[in-house]
Amino acid sequence: MAFQSLGLITELVRAVTEEGYTQPTPVQTQAIPIILAGADVMALAQTGTGKTAGFTLPLLQRLNNLVPNENYGRSARALILTPTRELAAQVAESVVAYSKYLPMLKSEVIFGGVNINPQISKLRRGTDIIIATPGRLLDLIEQRIVNLSKIEILVLDEADRMLDMGFIRDVKKILALLPKRRQNMLFSATLSHEIQILADSLLRSPKLVEVAKRNEAIGLVTQVIHPVDRKRKRELLSYMIGSKNWKQVLVFTRTKHGANHLCEQLISDGLTAAAIHGNKSQGARTRALAEFKSGKIRILVATDIAARGIDIDNLPYVVNFDLPNIPEDYVHRIGRTGRAGQEGTAISLVCVDELPLLKDIEKVLKRQIAQAIIPGYEPDKSIRAEPITKVRRGGGGSSSGGREPSRRGSRGSSKGSSKDSSWSRV
Length: 426
Fold this sequence. Notes:
This protein is α/β, with parallel strands linked by helices. 35% of the residues lie in helices and 14% in strands.
């Protein structure tokens, strides 16, 4: 099936073709006709499935067709909410690329962590589409720079992460400012009870688009657990990267401090690395990601929040240096590889402290993850499990900029139990 058959206009087909895409992905095939018809959409789609084009292409066409009357001025007509700066920037790039031949449509991206004044100047000139993180958007609304009274289309992208990061209050404040008559789209990688509640309150007779089994990791990703003592994780990581000559590795840590510390250790081992997390400036994060994509550095160490929005077509390796406290975050992490039909490998370095977290992850996946001990790095079975310090969701910091979101308590186990305190499977 080609993009033309989905009902897209020539200008959009030409733009998407120039971006190198000729065949729509399953989420695009399902979502685009539904959105073009004006229906609300509930889409369950993992990262890397082409969901951004799945909603931006029909959104652009509807705005192009629904010409505003003279009373609208240049008020925004579509709002795309994302949980992180990186994802907002990525969506904005897609909107600009796909609207290349629709010059009447204007878009602006707004997020925290950067100077607000240039964003204010651009918004005052008027725009059709706003791509935003919740905190900075509310700041601009309070300053009466943004008016949402003419919004016709709303998209909540990565809604599960929006809730995980504690943005639900900000999202509800924004929803209360929107016209009641509008088209709504909710995209999420997983379907939790909280997401279902949000969907029920937001969507009107929605059409369901589901391209992956709920709460299940992407099938093209090979997953493996390497049991190892907590104090030998970094040594094992450096050994694997060096001995196997891995060129591009995304490594996840649980905290911002852990990301910085691991990055320093890897550099001391002679490897090129950079860390990205919520305490880094937007410029530093953008620079680190660009160097990682270009191959200037081999290793990018990230927290969960900072990694959202990272879009690398052929990322071969993801390493969980620390398992996440939230089991669904494991699905998000490994979704950075195995994208767009490419195979990928997700490796988790698991110490005895993390066995309860591993159990929670396998419960979400509904299967056990294969384990393999690296010779010379066998775990010492006499080591007792220690409690894992609880961290706030997403690695302990907001990457949305603007205001700090309210946080809910972490799910998942944080202490080892007698049942899960030893490597019974190895």
